[in-house]
Amino acid sequence: MQVSAFSSPGGGAPNEDHFLVWAESALVLDGITRYPDDGCVHDVPWFVRRLGAAVGRRIGSPGGGLRRVLAEAIAEIGEAHLEAGTCDLGNPVTPGSTVGLVRREGDRLDWLLLGDCTVAWRDREGRVEFRSDDRLARLDGVPAESVGGVRRWPIAYVESVRNREGGYWVAAADYRAASQALTGSLAIGEVSEVLLCTDGLTRLVERYGYSWPELFERVAEVGVEGLVELVREHGEADTRFHPEAKRHDDATGVLLRLA
């Protein structure tokens, strides 16, 4: 596989996105912006890097589906929390992350999504398809409010919908959330390119009107870094943001070109 990958923080704070690429697999993680009083001594970058490493220790093992790989990785991070002796994993806003994962298995490419990451692919004929975990976007929600200086859902509402039936699912403290991940498989011989994105990059489609075929054409010219630069340009010019909303989100993409 040929790889083009890039990740950029949305501002002056540390990047809470993370990506990893192995011989025949790739991962993107979008750490959930931290809430005050989340009951944990670890920050979000700690969580996503530990989770990525835990996935990496399992991704090459045969016989385990991607849900199992993710579940075991989440469980490992939970144990690391408990070793600190100061983390409350029952806190509804304990550090967490969305997940996008692909892995080659013989003549197929398996994918997994948990949270609002997206996987898109272009076949040998140039046709483009994508899958997104849109369960978060489908929620009616409640009015956002200022929480720690950022406009977002109140903690009480998050507790009622995060990692709960009828709500949305992310990688956090409970390994059983991995069983709710969306999964699928593609025939290797039919796929030419695969693009994994966090939602900071999919703003190009969801907020700024680009189509997925247009993104594949653009990334062929400028690479993933060029896509991130493009979403930053649109963010600067966008007049629709609430004063306390994040104008720029951490943005990450991994493009895989298959021989």
Q: Can you tell me about this structure?
A:
- The structure is a single chain.
- The chain is α+β, with helices and mostly antiparallel strands and 259 residues long.
- The protein has one domain: Phosphatase 2c, domain 1, CATH 3.60.40.
- 28% of the residues lie in helices and 28% in strands.
- The protein is built from five helices and twelve strands.
- The chain has a five-stranded antiparallel sheet with strand order 1-12-11-6-7.
- Helix 1 crosses helix 2 and helix 4 packs across helix 5.
- The longest helix has 26 residues.
**Mass-distribution shape:** globular
Q: Tell me the number of helical segments per DSSP (H or I, 4 or more residues long).
A: 5
Helix content bin: 25-40%
Overall average pLDDT: 94
How far from one another are the termini? Answer: 6 Å
- Supply the CATH superfamily name: PPM-type phosphatase domain
Structural class determined from secondary elements: alpha+beta
**CATH fold-level topology:** Phosphatase 2c, domain 1
Residue windows where pLDDT falls under 50 for at least 5 positions: none
How many distinct domains?
A: 1
Count of beta strands: 12
SSE order, as H and E?
EEEHHEEEEEEHEEHHE
